[in-house]
Amino acid sequence: MTTADPTSPHPAWLPPAAFRAIGSRQTLVCGDGTLVETVRDEVARACARFGGTVQHSTGAATEPERTGVGARPYDLVLALRAAGSLPAGAAPAVEVGRELGPDRGGLDPEGFALARRDGVTVVLADAPAGLLYGLFEVVRLGAAAFDADRAVRVHSPALRLRLVSHWDNVDVHPVMGQVERGYAGGSIFWRDGAPIGDSDRIREYARLLAACGMNAMTVNNVNVHGTANRLLTDRLGDVAAIADLVRPYGIRVHLSVNFAAPVALDGLHTADPLDRDVRAWWARAAGRIYGTIPDFGGFMVKADSEGQPGPYRYGRTHADGANMLADALAPYGGVVHWRAFVYNHRQDWRDRSTDRARAAYDHFTPLDGRFRDNVIVQVKHGPMDFQTREPVSPVLAAMPGTRLAVEVQATQEYTGQQRHVCYLGPWWSEVLRFAPWGPGRPTVAAVVGGSSRDGDRTAPAGDDDRGVSAGGGLVVVSNVGADHYWTGHPLAQANLYAAGRLGWAPDLDPLAVLDEWIDLTFTPSATGDPDLLRGTLHALLDDSWRTYERYTAPLGVGFMVAPGHHYGPDVDGYEYSRWGTYHFADRDGVGVDRTRATGTGFTGQYPQPWADRYESLDTCPDELLLFFHHVPYQHVLHSGSTVIQHIYDTHFAGVEQVAEMVRRWERIGPAGLVGPALHARVTERLAEQLRSARQWCDTINTYFLRKSGVPDVRGRRIH
Amino acid sequence: MTTADPTSPHPAWLPPAAFRAIGSRQTLVCGDGTLVETVRDEVARACARFGGTVQHSTGAATEPERTGVGARPYDLVLALRAAGSLPAGAAPAVEVGRELGPDRGGLDPEGFALARRDGVTVVLADAPAGLLYGLFEVVRLGAAAFDADRAVRVHSPALRLRLVSHWDNVDVHPVMGQVERGYAGGSIFWRDGAPIGDSDRIREYARLLAACGMNAMTVNNVNVHGTANRLLTDRLGDVAAIADLVRPYGIRVHLSVNFAAPVALDGLHTADPLDRDVRAWWARAAGRIYGTIPDFGGFMVKADSEGQPGPYRYGRTHADGANMLADALAPYGGVVHWRAFVYNHRQDWRDRSTDRARAAYDHFTPLDGRFRDNVIVQVKHGPMDFQTREPVSPVLAAMPGTRLAVEVQATQEYTGQQRHVCYLGPWWSEVLRFAPWGPGRPTVAAVVGGSSRDGDRTAPAGDDDRGVSAGGGLVVVSNVGADHYWTGHPLAQANLYAAGRLGWAPDLDPLAVLDEWIDLTFTPSATGDPDLLRGTLHALLDDSWRTYERYTAPLGVGFMVAPGHHYGPDVDGYEYSRWGTYHFADRDGVGVDRTRATGTGFTGQYPQPWADRYESLDTCPDELLLFFHHVPYQHVLHSGSTVIQHIYDTHFAGVEQVAEMVRRWERIGPAGLVGPALHARVTERLAEQLRSARQWCDTINTYFLRKSGVPDVRGRRIH
User: Fold this and answer.
1) B309, B357 in Cβ contact below 8 A?
2) What is the ipTM of this complex?
């Protein structure tokens, strides 16, 4: 379908044109180390294309020789403050450095200061990673970085760990394929049990991640089976090869591991975390890994979850399990990401007393304070499973003595599988800004940034800083695959970009992030109308998550998807299953009673004010009504509409919005603004989105009309 | 789980003990040819075990030498009438032959006469196959064959072609696996694209088929892909190897072929059945096949069905397509099985005017009279797809100028997948005895036997008889796999046995057939109580199909199964899908209006009296009510119950019946009567059946309670 060059992937948000402003100027890079060399090489590549120059001073105290240009000063200086004295042409940088001054305290190891003074744009950092992130900030600013003067501004990431989790299988899984919940072709790492060996692509991926602010990745699925186990042992070289490729972009490699690896790999009779041999096995494994990959990040574990092995089997707690791995990694500064996604996946739907939403809280909060400092308990953003709408997980407000990470899903498992446009930035932004203890109190971002606990999560820079300070950061399930556009749907690139940016700065406006992504990604041709392009992309993306919500499961009730693959509607698909995801629709009403008064009591897992706000029909937000309450179809929402009429209205509206997206996209035409191949790919996906949205709309509306018998007050056709 | 010897399959209905009566006696076999040698070898094998003797006269006119026994007459004579004069010890056989006399007309080529006179049991046939079937009739009779005198009785098959259709894939299909809809392990023929090469097993299988009356098989899935295409060309040797193994048991091999094979295999630009090159290609293919397999049976084709290629693509009819293949096979006497399973599998559920039940009739009846004599149009027994309950397909009464076969499914796709006990003999018996034109008029068995057309479908015996006489016979989708018990569930063996027996004699009582199967299969130990065993097996099997019907989709509405794999309930699983299988349940009622008055008009495809009987609520049988009518939940059935109360009652009753089956099976104990491994296997499957039946019951009842709001009058727990 696409005529794009299949041999090189789409440049995403780093096309050559994004470096035009830098590449045409005179740049000085000062400092030592791999990441500084990356900065220099990035600038040099841009200069080779656009005619600028780059000088690199590796820390000698003398002025570097300048060649090829006159005596005029540098346009851009990117310098480590420890790199020694700067040349005369970089005088404004010296001033900025003085202004920052040692008395102001060290910069974050990933932070940087940015200013423009006397015609020189200055980026200063105390550690190489900061210089790299500073470079990409200048790239984002584009020509504006070289306009008027800018006061000094210090940038540092709000979340220390910003990790992309790949659910890539090493072997092909008989049901899940090469990438579990992957909608962008094969894996960029693995094929049929072996590395693909496409070094260029992995390097390019690391570059994209760094440019949006990510600093870590797992390279294999959290469900670990077959060959993937051996990444710990005889296939460790495959991991090291990836680590070597991504290291220059400040990306650390983590591994998903199987809790029963000692049994699976070496025939130990147990994986009991308190067993001496098991502990020794993991200690040896860690030693071996760090001997090969000195900056290895750590382990991610899905234990006692959906059939995966874990400590419960041995009568141990999740703290026992996680701490055992943490002890193995501690000597080397590694961390354990221990997933809180633990629930009874063999629930009897007839048992109304069990509520899957309660599970993570019930399993984990009793263990608060019992995890090692290098354990991160990784909590899905909602209590269920990456639905289009859920409340924020109460676990995030209930473990003050534990490092917590929040996990979001860029891969669109439940949000259109990269066939639907669904920009998730606004959703993640809501989650990160959510204040579990009420307005003015710490947000989820503060919790996972560590600042809700100690007031200042910033640790001093240092060699042994391996992210073991407080706060567990952000984990993003990757939406990337071997597809030419990386993400199947070209517009789904925006989700990965936004995840990185919101991890760095959770208070960013997600629509402003979208503007960044648009500016970087799309270079309007000379004949194109950039406002038309920007307007069209905003029209497609801005409200797309809420549009998707409108035509799918209503009012926070969730699921209603086809079992197994989760694409398309099946209202009762999970209603009589073992998965704990029910809506309880009958001829009178719909929704899950999770109140303390009459339901499962899940509302009681929240602190105030939410415990009461969710409990009461008067204060429960409309969009979460059916998550917390079972109500009659004629219940009147805060919006003034009845539940049943709201269902009809939003579903018809959602389809109409998709139809409008199709029209808007048609209007920019196949050529010119975005290139014919990309236009065609989006056109094809929009057609499928429209078909699927109609199927959702008609199925949901028909289902509820048949069940309720209440006609649409507007008399539209329901089947 | 089972401790049975994995190296040799279960003997099914041919354990050594089944030959005890024959093996301890003096037998004379007279005649020439492969099948006669098979008869001799079968008797010899029995004699080796039980101490009897066998003499074989190969047609010389002299008395064969007798060794090892005295001068007393034979106990059993199996003789071709053309085999020449019989020895003195076989005098009663001569008398029987005289009584049959040439003036009585030749026997059917597969027929035989059986009598017992003067202490000699006599089987006479005019062709070798008859002798083989006669032998197995004697096996069935057991000791009774050697009791009192028996008058001469001529046996001949009611249906000429009795074919087992294997949906075995040659390559493993990524979704369907090695055997499509197979529930008994892998294929007995193929594994991962190559023959398994288990000659013993294939020979044993042919023996089982012959012993129940089958005479043909396809060896590959009707969905033909990948390597299976090449069975026509460079992998033809694999087919010939199978043909060689099954030939001694009178089984002919047929092949499923892909209509687009000329394109797929040889790059022809078309598969147009009127294209000269295409016709020549198939003619060459047929020539090649018959050069290798002289008794090759023919082709089976699924064309223009569920995505398979076919003549529609070229603007041709099914008659064009089938006749083209028929012309290629005609010089060699081969037949084409052309499936009538053609419907729109991309239906829009919102379109109420399309009715999948109508499809086969609408596609095929206009072509009546236009098919070659060696085309058999193969019609699924019902208009939908092998449901637990459907009306008989009206196509079977609507093509008087066409040879028709009826297709039934022994593999339990929709009837419990060989985890549930579901003896299908009574269901097939109903179908075969159904009289489309009313009582006293021809039955379905007569239609597919050819006697509804010409009054006497029996063709004269002859060398060139290749089954091209009228009537298309029975096609049975196999339930057999590489499982030790052949069929996964040991009791599912009874289905294959019954299919063969009902193909031979459709008027047999299916419970009498069950008795045959029990007597042959189970040899009670000396300590066992045979009445307990027989009683238990009848308790489990007799009513098992109706029991299964009770706890699954009610009143003929069909489906309500989980999409894809079709195991377990999902009431709305296909309700908003493209498959045309809907129930239209809403808060007021349920069912499909297929009347002429207000519905899809499907009732009009039946001749009288059924056209009117199905049309009217007053006369439509209860068990098909929801297939033909949409009725309110409070509609009163002929049984006196309302529809909704019937649903509750039958579902609770069905579960209770399964619970009773479990108790009955427990009572016969793990040892003794059936052997511990078989007992354990059945115990395990019954536990799953009980779990699944409860899931069905609770899901269906809850679904309809939620929808109708009508409580169970007996106040039982519905969730």
Assistant:
1) no
2) 0.87
